[in-house]
Specification:
- The complex is a heterodimer.
- Chain A is mainly beta.
- Chain A contains two helices and 20 strands.
- In chain A, the strands form six sheets. Chain A has a four-stranded mixed sheet, with helices on one face. Chain A has a four-stranded antiparallel sheet with strand order 3-2-6-7, with helices on one face. In chain A, strands 14-11-19-20 form a four-stranded mixed sheet, with no helix packed on it.
- In chain A, a hairpin with a 5-residue loop joins strand 9 and strand 10.
- About 12% of the residues of chain A have low confidence.
- Chain B is an alpha+beta fold.
- Chain B has a domain of 148 residues: Beta Barrel (Sortase, Chain: A).
- In chain B, the strands form two sheets. Chain B has an eight-stranded mixed barrel with strand order 4-5-6-7-12-13-11-10. In chain B, strands 8-9 form a two-stranded antiparallel ribbon.
- In chain B, strand 4 and strand 5 form a beta hairpin.
- Chain B starts with 7 loop residues before the first helix and ends with a strand.
- In chain B, 41% of the residues are buried.
- The N terminus of chain B is likely disordered.
- Classes of the chains: A mainly beta, B alpha+beta.
- Chains A and B meet through helix 1, strand 1, strand 3, strand 4 and strand 5 of A and helix 1, strand 2, strand 3, helix 3 and strand 8 of B.
- Strand 4 of chain A pairs antiparallel with strand 2 of chain B.
Chain lengths: 293, 266
């Protein structure tokens, strides 16, 4: 095994170790963990507790979710070989690394092995933002995981705040009204896109975009992960302004209805307050000026 | 072997990253839990029903609430990834098989999003029992988060929710009146359980629904998560304004809502 491959394998190994360190949670919880291979050119086999778990794990592959109960795991990483045995004890080659991390629970994390700015293999872990977006909005998350300098996201000749100053190993995210945007990736502080990266923001989804590869080698690619179900509902339905229908079909405030309504309000008082609190962010965002068409 | 991994300095940096991550993660955990609890704390619409039909219309399914928050927020499982076995909590046994999928490029993600958005949409609604026959247009939300309502004569379909005939409720809203004109849903409150609702879809198909519940809610007590539910039986929800009119703010105090479910055997 040559040196670069060994280093890359090590990075993949470390990201598995990182699963182990992602937060302290109760033993009753599980973690949802995605493992992403963002280093070109190296295939590996990953064994967990002696069993082949990720076979022929290749660049641009996304494994997961690993739903891992909080526990200790024995992790062994080998360079991929065809017909990899089901148990690590049957491997004839040496494990590149053999570790026993403690895996906590309760989170959603993406861990990616990738190239650092200087082109050496490294890894980064990101917490996936699964908070609901406001009604009408989606989220875009840009993760810089390529051998390239710090970047800004640009559109229409201007940077898209706050998607700016993103350095290798870091991310920036924004909630935007659902739409397609003519965005691109530019060197930080410049406005001319080095790479077109038009995004379509879908309501209630977090589109995660990873830049992987090596800019100097012209091998940068954009890899995505997509988290759905982050919807909010509209906050009100106001559909009349003229009073032409000013005669209720039935009164909520007469007789037993009033009693029932009062009881309902009393019993739901606390709940309604938290319900409204949870809804406070459910508003559509105003479009940044340079994204308007 | 370990010496070939990285330099000691890089390792230390990685450890710092890991520790920071742990802190960030524990903060997020608390926020998520609060959000879920708040979403579940819904007012019970049955307290306010003016008229109710059968209860099996699917509108009483609280499951949609959870799936709109954390349960449904897992990564889209690509085709063929199979089901996930439920691991035994706290037991350091074998890890279940992990699906591995080739990540999509940004271009593929964009194409799929645009194909999804291009699916057939509702174009016309008819409700013979109360003389509703109106064109449907796509609507979203206003900047303040309120549902967007089209002009007086059109009905708005909430384009970020379910499509008619698909899982969940398609929400159709229209004015009861607007700037002195009668709105497309002026007669909606006269709708009754058993009334037929026909929806024409862009591809030429007509879907038939039957009204299962009619309800009136004070606007601040509208059961949003039930109306906009995304899972469960296919239904449509027709909604407009009603109740007392408050001339000082030119607004009605209530919403009138018809819940209808898809008729599959016609």
């Amino acid at each position: 095994m040559n040196r670069p491959i060994r280093a890359a394998v090590a990075a993949v190994t470390m990201l598995v170790m990182l699963l182990a360190s992602a937060g302290q949670a109760s033993a009753q919880e599980t973690s949802d963990v995605y493992v992403i291979h963002g280093i070109p050119g190296v295939d590996v086999d990953v064994y967990v507790n002696g069993d082949l778990t990720l076979e022929n794990f290749q660049p641009k592959d996304i494994a997961g979710p690993l739903t891992l109960p909080a526990a200790d795991y024995d992790i062994e990483i080998f360079a991929h070989e065809d017909g990899a045995p089901a148990a690590s004890s049957e491997r004839t080659d040496d494990a590149v690394i053999d570790v026993s991390p403690a895996v906590p629970g309760g989170e959603n994390v993406s861990v990616i092995a990738h190239l650092a700015e200087d082109g050496t293999p490294t890894l980064s872990a990101f917490v996936n933002d699964l908070e609901p977006a406001g009604a009408g909005n989606g989220r875009v998350t840009i993760r810089h995981t390529a051998a390239a300098p710090t970047v800004d996201i640009v559109a229409g000749g201007a940077a898209v705040d706050p998607l700016t100053g993103i350095s290798n190993g870091n991310e920036a995210k924004a909630d935007l009204p659902a739409d397609s945007y003519p965005t691109g990736i530019a060197a930080a502080g410049t406005t001319e896109a080095l790479l077109d990266a038009p995004v379509t923001v879908v309501e209630g989804e977090n589109l995660v975009v990873y830049a992987i590869g090596d800019l100097s080698a012209g091998s940068v690619e954009l890899l995505t992960q997509n988290f759905t179900g982050l919807h909010s509902t509209p906050t009100a339905v106001n559909s009349g302004n003229s009073g032409l229908r000013d005669a209720p079909a039935a009164s909520l405030f007469g007789g037993w209805n009033l009693v029932l309504l009062t009881m309902a309000l009393l019993s739901l008082g606390g709940a309604v307050i938290s319900f409204n609190a949870g809804r406070a962010e459910a508003r559509r965002l105003e479009l940044p000026a340079n994204l308007k068409r | 072997m370990a010496a070939s991994l990285t330099t000691g300095a890089k390792r230390s940096a990685a450890v710092v990253v890991v520790l920071s991550l742990a802190l960030v993660i524990s903060g997020c955990s608390a926020a998520n839990d609060i959000s879920v609890a708040a979403d579940r704390a819904l007012p019970d619409p049955s307290e306010q029903f003016v008229e109710s039909g059968t209860v099996d219309s699917g509108t009483d399914d609280p499951g949609g609430i959870a799936s709109n928050s954390l349960q449904g927020s897992a990564l889209d499982a690509p085709p063929g990834s199979g089901s996930e076995p439920e691991p035994e909590v706290g037991v350091p046994a074998a890890v279940p098989n992990v699906p591995i999928n080739r990540g999509r490029s940004l271009a593929q993600a964009t194409e799929e999003a645009e194909n999804e958005a291009a699916a057939a949409r509702p174009v016309r609604i008819r409700m013979g029992a109360i003389d509703i026959d109106a064109p449907i247009t796509d609507v979203g939300v206003e900047l303040d988060g309120e549902l967007e309502i089209p002009g007086a004569t059109e009905v708005g379909w909430y384009q970020f929710g379910s499509r008619p005939g698909e899982t969940g409720n398609a929400v159709l809203a229209a004015h009861v009146d607007y700037n002195g004109e009668l709105g497309a849903f002026f007669e909606l409150r006269e709708g009754a359980v058993g009334d037929i609702v026909e929806i024409d879809v862009e591809d030429g198909e007509t879907l038939t629904f039957v009204v299962r519940q009619r309800a009136q809610y004070r606007k601040d007590e509208l059961p949003f998560d039930e109306i906009f539910r995304r899972d469960g039986a296919a239904g449509v929800v027709l909604i407009t304004c009603g109740g007392d009119f408050n001339p000082s703010v030119r607004s009605y105090e209530d919403n009138v809502v018809l819940f209808a479910e898809l008729v599959t055997d016609r």
